[in-house]
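Example with several molecule types.
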Amino acid sequence: MTVINELTLVVSTNFSPTPGPRKILEGKFSGEEFRESCLEPKLKEAIEKNTKLLIDLDGTAGFGTSFLEEAFGGLIRINKYSYEEILNHIELKSVEEDYLIDDIKWYLKDAANK
Amino acid sequence: MKKFFTGVDYKSFNQKRSEDRNIRRLAHKKWKTTKLRLELGLAQEEIKEKKSFKNKYPNYVKVIAPEVFSFIKNTNEVIELIEHLKKLYDSNQKVYVVLEHVKETDYSAIVVLLSIMVKFKTKNIDFNGSIPSENEPRQMLEQSGFFKNLYKKFTEHDSYDISTIGPNGIHTHAAKKVDSALSSQIITSATKYIWGEARRCQGVQRVLIELMQNTNNHAEIGKLGEKHWWLSVNQDKNSKKVSFSFVDFGVGIFTNLAYKPTESKFYGWVQKLSSKIQYGNNADLLELILKGELHRTVTGEHYRGKGLPGIAEVMRRNQISNLHIITNDVFCCASNGIYRTLSNSFSGTFVYWELGEDNDSHKRVNTSSID
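Resulting structure tokens for the full complex:
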């Protein structure tokens, strides 16, 4: 699949420099909130425009694993996107914490396998 | 007159009076025996002191803090103290913690003491304590805000902030929810002390979020956001180090594991694990958890940085140092590979670590955005 142009989502500036817990109930800046307010609408736009969404994870205070799992795994579990659809339309950037990219891909795979 | 003393009324009155006197006499005898037994071998001065304490603090129960008042160095005795205080809290007993014999203390015990004090005060149970005679522990306790808050009133809140401002400030925070903005602020002030500038430490942030999330989700079986987490942060005046002491008084890691619900990935973990790996006790089990072996064996998947193994991974990445964990009957110094079974069991989870110049950090991209 060829994709043109690129949309960008910088977590630290478009959402919060201090990403928090998994669920909205558990505290501010949760993965659930991020998915609902930023990630899913942007991904939807990217799919509609057939472009890639570049998600920049650098510049934050740090991520809890539950935030990432809920945000990305939730796209499959809650928003019912397919694993392939997501992989075709997102690109992850994490220079400061390179392991986050593998972790997110794994969360997506895990959610797809359930 | 003779008729009066031999009358039925008088005889019954006399009988009752004699019985009452006997009861009083026996009660007094019992009290005297106990008193003498308690005073046996005590110097007159001590007896006097006891009496004056009783007059000054009536109905208080004296609890003596150990000489080495450190959760890390003297775990068993501090657990004993916590469990004793817990029993007194449950029975609404007023408490006086004797701290004057404390020769050595550190922040691992101070966070515990502060949290217990607030717990008593929110339940309106009097809580008091003496000042350590030794200079160093006295200063440390003063800086922690313990004495400053002893006479304050506390009401039940979702979060508390006990801070003292000074060159060697100890700040204690408590909450029920995950507060990533607060943890980021704490890291900012820690890094300013260590490196002289605000930096980001994603490893410390991850540890704090994972621990807060664990308290919120698992401290009480089947209930969310029931227990407070407590965090004390101290800037070490002798070295460019900041220590973090995190505690919750939940059920602890192993009790939580024992009650995994049927829908959990970890349900039936004992059978799954013991069929593949031999382990002797909870100390061995904690080692397996931190290495990610429990997760891998039970779920057949990699743990991907989640929970406790994720915290150990942060240490292996050199994002934190000197990681200690105390939970239920296990003491662990993960940095040195020490896993020990304790003779007393702590109902809760305690985690201690340090951040210093040798640990990884990232320069701030935009100093105004993360605060």
